[in-house]
Amino acid sequence: MLSLSQNKLIDYLYLISIIGLIVHTIFKNYTVSIACLCGIFNIFTNHKNMLSIKYISAVTFIVVGMTRLTGQSVSLHADVIERCDSIDVHFNIVTDLSGKTLQNYLWKFGDGNPVTSNSTSVVKRYNSPGVYYASVEMRLTDGSTVYSDTTRIFVRPKPNANFFVADTFKLGKLTYRFLSGKAPTDTIVYSYEWTLNPDSSGSYLKIHAHANYVTPGPGIHYTKRDTLLYAFAHSGADIMRLQVTDYFGCADTFQQRFFVSEELVIPQVFTPNGDGINDFFIVQTNGRTVFSFKVFSITGQLIFKSESPSIIWDGKMATGSDAVPGSYLYVIEAVSGEPVKRQAGFFMLLKERK
Questions:
Q1: CATH at 135
Q2: What are the backbone dihedrals phi and psi of residue 159, each rounded to the nearest 5 degrees, phi first?
Q3: Are residues 179 and 243 in the same domain?
Q4: pTM: predicted TM-score of the whole model, two decimal places
């Protein structure tokens, strides 16, 4: 004899429901009929309100029928879900009409510009960085609508390869500082590849694999600009190229030509005529050293002066009026920061027609 509490029968029923759930998971979209041959039991209640069960045959479950459920469905797929800059995404759908008639598909791309079509595939171009959620509505002639799941499309911003060049202004040294532009405001890793004169010698200077990935504290991440310090062997014209690549393989390249010199490089001519070309007298600096910059007329009259890490003049005198065309004397001295030789010389201010 096998003595069981009344709760044991509940356990048997619970077991049957679990088996039903498993069958439903395996045979989705099917109706499954199950027969339970629970054996033959002699069951009676004793004076302790317990059930005494005499076991005769094993508990057996048999699938006796399986019928496919009918219904409509639409499933959305995309060939690309993440890339940088502008991307073309090829969408396609798999549908099941189950005997009903299609009216059309409403394609929603997450950019506020839906498209109605009877085609099961479309190509969508995303031109702006951002996160987009695409979906499809399958509209039927009986007025009903079947909805697809949502697909997330992530268009990453293109890395920023722009950089600035500045002399460190230490006497007797041709050491220059190259400062990259600001990276996009996210937490992924960017690599920086600096190349000197890529069109000729093509010498690689540095590859900073994780140059601007910084963790200032637990769980806190941010990015910063990359910096390269390079000491040139001699003065002259050079080209520096920077390629920035992010974790996902998106890349950007920028290069610029500059002149290496032991002294500040002073423009010989500038034309403040408002045409957007060479409108300012600019001397490249390291952005930290404070300079005294003075401009004198050929007769020795002080025309303009400033004290700043930047050396720039727009061609206007201290009174606000435009300086007349002609030759001018400049004097540049370091007020603070790294030592710099005092430099003085002449330049031309021209007023060419626009």
A1: 2.60.40.10
A2: -60, 155
A3: yes
A4: 0.50
